[in-house]
Amino acid sequence: MLESMTDEVAELVLTDNADQNDLMGTSRANAASLLNVHARQIKQLVAERGLSRELEALPSEKEIRRRAEAGIGLTSPELATLMAHVKLALKDEVLASDLPDQEVFAARLPHYFPSVLRDRFRSEIRSHQLRREIVTTMLVNELVEAAGITYAYRITEDVGVKPVDAVRTYVATDAIFGIEKLWRQIRAADVPVATSDRMTLDTRRLIDRAGRWLLNYRPQPLAVGAEINRFGKKVQELTPRMSEWLRGDDKAIVEKEAAEFASQGASEELAYMVATGLYRYSLLDIIDIADIVDRDPAEVADTYFALMDRLGTDGLLTAVSALPRDDRWQSLARLAIRDDIYASLRALCFDVLEVGEPEESGEEKIGEWEHTSASRVERARRTLTEIYESGAKDLAALSVAARQIRRMTRTSGRGSSG
Fold it and tell me: So where does this one cross the membrane (predicted)?
């Protein structure tokens, strides 16, 4: 039996090594832009876990300031050390919780073992004395490798939740959007390293935004299995129809990026799936709105993306992403503006659906809404036009733009289906 497992065990080991190398590659590519986040992570590990910078050969705060001025990030050995300590800290948090005992997490346990053992010792594997530790290791490795070294830290810092909540929301996001499958397809694609890194980082943006949405709009602690059941199937059904609903600049942006990925060797299907990532994120709002107002999700999607096009929100969101994030406060300011834009878009979708008929197109519904809300919409649009025409894309201008979109709304848009 041992001999029969040799090839599969070797493949599992090689896959794990390849995953680690891929993680280090994308981490190096993003090291300079994430230096301040890495610095805060190191500082937290020093304060909470007694990490020694000297023993672990990690840079001092003075050295980090020097690198920030020079535009240099952590080195590969430093990133590897940080990754190891991030995983250890996450494992301790997960082991201290009941996550490894819940079926939605524990279901991955058999996949740790070769297929021969899975087939012959199914019940024994389920009762393995180290099952909690194995499940925890699998969970943490999946999260860090797919979402990155900083994901759990940024989620806890930005939203104010615990590390186990970051694990919950990652597992839900993974299942709802098929992140693991997408990640494997990117890894297997015959594309240059720079393209693979770019596709991975695009996918991580989807993970980030979907994770924050689940933490902000769904009851906590997140009922992972229930959320997967609520959103997973509908996301799968709506995803192939994205090209029907995207308009104008949004459609052009996706098609341009997908063409770039395909030109580098990615399949057309994979290229389009990655390119639509940040738009697929909006399917969470769309499905939730449809549940609340009892309308067809396809109708809501058509209305939602018509609103995005009408208001030019993608241009604003792109400008927000280009804002500096040299410290925590700049990062939080960017996040606040982005959340405000998405929340206003959600609220406006409720307003537009309320005045429109199901059989009308998104544009027709928006036309009726603009007519019934003429004074409120016109005031906001004048200011938005000034901002767009001025070309101003700094924090102040984008904050005002987000506020003007919010002023168009009549409902709060903050509610969520049960």
Answer: none
User: What pLDDT shows up at residue 413?
Assistant: 54
Domain-located, residue 123: yes
How many independent structural domains does the chain possess? 1
In a domain, 102, yes or no: yes
Q: Greater confidence, 16 or 147? A: 147
Burial state string for 214-252 with b = 16 or more CB within 10 A and e = fewer than 16 = bbebbeeebebbebbebbbebbeebbeebeebbbeebbe
Cβ neighbours of 52 (radius 10 Å): 10
Each residue of 138-150: pLDDT tens digit? 999 999 999 999 9
- ∠ CA 216-218-221, nearest 5°, is 95
Q: How far apart are CA 275 and CA 101, in angstroms?
A: 36
> How many DSSP H helices and E strands does the chain contain?
24, 0
CA 366, 299, 267, 277: dihedral to nearest 10 degrees? 70
Q: Are 334 and 320 in contact (CB under 8 A)?
A: yes
List the structure tokens of 133: 């530790």
Give a yes or no: residue 22 inside a domain: yes
Asked if residue 301 lies in contact with residue 245, where contact means CB atoms within 8 angstroms, the answer is yes
Q: Among residues of the chain, what percentage have pLDDT more than 90?
A: 78
Length of the chain: 418
CA distance 387 to 389: 6
Closest CA to 284 of 269, 304, 258: 304
Which structural domain range is residue 54 located in?
Answer: 1-160
The whole-angstrom separation of Cα 182 and Cα 366 is: 35
pLDDT value at residue 149:
97
Convert the pLDDT of each residue in 246-285 to its tens digit: 999 999 999 999 999 999 999 999 999 999 999 999 999 9
DSSP 384: H
Rounded CA separation 281/276 (Å):
9
**Each residue's pLDDT tens digit, 40-88:** 999 999 999 999 999 999 999 999 999 999 999 999 999 999 999 999 9
In a domain, 56, yes or no: yes
